[in-house]
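Example (one chain per record):
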Amino acid sequence: MNSRIFARAPGKLVLAGEYAVLLGAPSIVLAVDRYATCIYEATEDQGLRLKAVPLNEDVLVSSIQDLATKSDVSVVRLISLFNEYLPKLSNAQICVDTTKFFQNGRKLGIGSSAASLVATAKLVESLSGYRFEFEELLDLHRRFHGRGGSGLDVAAAQHGGVIEYRDKMTKPISLPANLQLRFVYTGYETSTDDMLARFRNWCTKSDKVLLDEWLKSSALVADSLGNATKFIESVAVQSNLLQQIDRQAKLGIFGTVHQTAARIASQSDLLYKPSGAGGGDMGLVMGTDSNALDYFSQKIMESGLIEQSMTISRSGVEVVE
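Predicted structure:
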């Protein structure tokens, strides 16, 4: 067994298809270069130390079999998911680091739990020789996270790059060559549980015409990847329909900060939309004109919003030598 193993997995941003993916429509997801890391190190100290940064979690047990006594700590709950795959670890430390997923102590909303789980699973593979299938990772994430999402964040962390994701199936894709993106953080976190519950409730008694039109628009987004202008237009249609759903279901997707960013983007004929569940967390702007995007960045800064420097992570989860 190696004395030190370093595994990492990227975060994610949803370019299109959030919420619709829960009903089987395709979503377009970017893996971004903010990485969760999981590091194993053999030590001379007795016992097994588990740490989580920046959560300030530091737990020492005699061995991995004794983790049940510390189940209220998130890093313990994460590592405990892999008990049956791991050897009897002792005289070692495992540290899970999601620092890059936070801004001023608040989560950015770019998939920290999925990335940390997928990175940990890759570490466990190196220690045990076992190989996890996507369905297994998805089940482990649902147990860790305590909710049943679509799995797009797990898929992005596993595969990297740009993917089309639907019905637990992942297809690598390419964005239009001249499409440019900028990313904005609203400054506050969103708890998505209530939003997802309201969305699912709305679906049971929804305006079926609006619902069908919105789901069809989601499919058209995936079919328009060959041309940047058509792609942006398709995402705009999908986003506008989601705004109608947002108003009907009172979800709060297009919160005040997102509305401000959208107004700034519209001044330069750019498209802005929330990324993911919305409310707070992240949003993104897309266009083909670099000058217009630079102007947007300037106005965003003047308005007090926070632009995030991110690029697409071409690699998914990996062990780094």
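Caption: DSSP finds nine helices and 14 strands in the chain.
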